[in-house]
Amino acid sequence: MSELINNRAHRIEALKHIILDLHRGAAPLEVKARLKALVRETDAVEIAAMEQSLIAEGVPVEEIRAMCNLHAEVFEEVMTESALPDIPPGHPVDTFRRENEAIGRAVAMMRAAMAEIRAGAGGDVLTEAVGRWRQAANDLADVEKHYARKENLLFSKLEKYGITGPSKVMWAKDDDIRALVKLLGRRLAEPELTHDRLTEIADTAGDPAAAEIDGMIFKEENILLPMALETLTEEDWGAVWQDSPDYGWCLIEPRAGYEPPQPAGPPPVAEVAQDRALRFPTGNLTLEQLEGLFRALPVDLTFIDADDRVRYFSEGERIFTRSKAILGRKVQNCHPPKSVHMVEQIVSDFRAGRQDKAEFWIELHGKFIHIRYFAVRGAAGEYLGTLEVTQDLAPLRALSGERRLLEYAPAS
Fold first, then answer.
1. What is residue 190's three-state secondary structure?
2. By mean pLDDT, which of 179-183, 313-317, 368-372 is the weakest?
3. Beta bridge partner(s), residue 385
4. 8 A C-beta contact, residue 274 and residue 289
5. For the segment 361-380, what is each residue's pLDDT rounded down to a tens digit?
């Protein structure tokens, strides 16, 4: 066993140095040759460990993200297929893979339509090809659900076992794909698209989106999912399955057949009896009343403790999807890499006492979303954590005049 461990550790270290040479400008063909000479068997866990080691030694996530496709290219020929366990229909991995198949079909349909346009299609043939291209682009917009489940559920489980580096790199690549898919959708929605403009869109948006999506499918199928199957327990997969409906499905519906393990018993919700009053400086509330109060608030609350871990989120009016998988997770790992620096600055400023409040606002899907962060402090001013309060202000911004009489809103 020690020989196996040592061999694996040696391979990871050697892989890291070869990939660093690639970053420094070594030719991919040379790197492939060195990899073939070095290893006869490299698996997903070793590649993930190599990327995590690079990050731990100070290689920026953005640099690894920029080289991610090249990493996959040079590893493709030396990786061996893992002997995966039997996966029942409906298991989260089965669903992820079937979604990838559907995503791959949409990419293939888009490529075929672009090829017809480039070949000079005109008249009804051109109209039909553009229609298929738009349909494929619309289908690809559904990858958001696939990526959201991966980032919020699968990554959070891997983090329990200290696997964080690959998640950061892959999330950054997901964001690249999101941007490309949105760009493609906007360009295909332009009025009066000429043949030349369609060709330009194919070159600048269609091809890059297709390449990046295909690359992500390869990384998930050959690195992420095998690594997750090797690492996660059946209880972990049951939790992923339980929370997955919060994010939805991409292009397919899960199959029946998977039965998650039954928990030994419900975890204690609180150590305080439901009917026992909690005493506050300004009054008393039972636990049941307090839970109802949080559900009734017209805002979305999330609390991060002094160790930067998510400890609570409200179940009332949600703006952004949350699942219980984020509980106990480092807040830095709950955000895409491109915004982590802002999260870290806010928490750092709150902890040091330099600031007590930060706020942002964005327009999204017809909503005007106001996001505020508040430092939570104890009686002596010590930092206890950060409260995030999110609210859709669009209905309030639309108000005008006065309402002095009782009038209920229509029942939803």
1. coil
2. 313-317
3. 305, 376
4. no
5. 999 888 999 999 999 999 99
- Given a cut of 90, whether residue 166 has pLDDT beyond it is no
Q: How does residue 391 score in pLDDT terms, banded at 50, 70 and 90?
A: very high
Averaged pLDDT for residues 315-327: 83
Cα dist from 63 to 159, 214, 311, 378, whole Å: 21, 20, 32, 40
Q: State the DSSP H helix or E strand holding residue 194, giving kind and residue range, or none if neither.
A: none
Q: How far apart are CA 110 and CA 178, in angstroms?
A: 16
CA–CA separation, 57 vs 72, rounded Å? Answer: 21
Which residue, chain included where needed, has tokens 């640099």? Answer: 63
d(CA 360, CA 351): 19
Tell me what the mean pLDDT of segment 173-190 comes to.
Answer: 95
Please report, for residues 287, 304, 318, the alpha-carbon distance to residue 385 in angstroms, rounded to integers and kept in the order given: 22, 5, 21
Q: Write the pLDDT tens digit of every residue in 22-70.
A: 777 778 777 777 766 665 566 666 777 777 777 777 777 677 766 666 6
Which string of DSSP letters, residue by residue, matches 58-75? T--HHHHHHHHHHHHHHH
Query: Is the CB of residue 384 less than 8 Å from the CB of residue 306?
Result: yes
Residue 224: CB atoms within 10 A of its CB come to: 22
* Alpha carbon separation from 157 to 216, 235, 307 (Å, rounded): 20, 10, 19
Q: 240: part of which helix (H) or strand (E)?
A: helix 234-243
The residue-averaged pLDDT of 150-160 equals: 93
Per-residue tokens: 20: 């660093």
Worst-scoring range by mean pLDDT, 88-102, 269-283, 319-333? 269-283
Q: Based on the number of CB atoms within 10 Å of its own CB, is 114 exposed (0-12), middle (13-18) or buried (19 or more)?
A: buried
Q: Is the dihedral of CA 159, 163, 168, 171 positive or negative?
A: negative
Tokens representing residue 116 in the block = 């017809």
Give the H or E element holding residue 300: strand 300-305
Which residues sit opposite 300 in a β-bridge? 390
The residue type found at 201 is I
Q: In whole angstroms, what is the distance from residue 188 CA to residue 182 CA?
A: 10
